[in-house]
Amino acid sequence: MQLTALPTSWNIDQILDDLNKLGFALVDNAYPLEYVHDLVRECGLHLEEFRAAGIQNGVVSHIRSDHILWIDDQLPVAQRHINTLQSLSQVLNQAFFLGIKEVEAHFACYNAGEFYALHRDNPQQKNDRMISTVFYLHEHWQQDWGGQLHLQDKNGKWHTIQPQPNRLAIFLSDILHEVLLSKQQRLSITAWLRSGNSIWNN
């Protein structure tokens, strides 16, 4: 893993406490605005390359309608975010013994009328996704534009998380969640911190 220092604005103790008690955590004002501007620009330059996420091997899924672009070394601005998540992985490994080994991520675009129905990123622990993250990279958002992350915490309580610009949502991959219908174009980076042989200890 290529490690990058975590932003000083991130309250790591709070993140760990919230993940432990609730199964999710939020980081607002995650990055300097200059970096967010560069990220939005890089995303926008590649929007024509996005593909429908709900089509896999020619089969159409009816639970999602967003569009995605996987992030690799050809997207250097977004790769900086991935490097930061790799550093976060080391902190989570030390705190929760998750054995996270890698980060996979893609840009996500929800156009008006698009959504992602209720699901789990790691249903019944059938894959190696341990932690899911969503970083909202649009520069402006209004509450009545929809696109909220709706999730159920470890205690069974439901939360509606606004896709506030420069906000990072972090949650256990086996948590039930959905993306509510968006009324405006909503841009984000979805990433999973993956481990091939670890199980979250509840």
Automatic annotation (TrEMBL):
SUPFAM superfamilies: Clavaminate synthase-like. Residues 101-195 form the Fe2OG dioxygenase domain. GO terms for biological process: cellular response to hypoxia. Keywords: Dioxygenase, Iron, Metal-binding, Oxidoreductase, Vitamin C. Gene3D superfamilies: q2cbj1_9rhob like domain (2.60.120.620). Signal peptide: none annotated. Its cofactor is L-ascorbate. GO terms for molecular function: ferrous iron binding; L-ascorbic acid binding; peptidyl-proline dioxygenase activity. It holds the Pfam family 2OG-FeII_Oxy_3. This is 2OG-Fe(II) oxygenase.
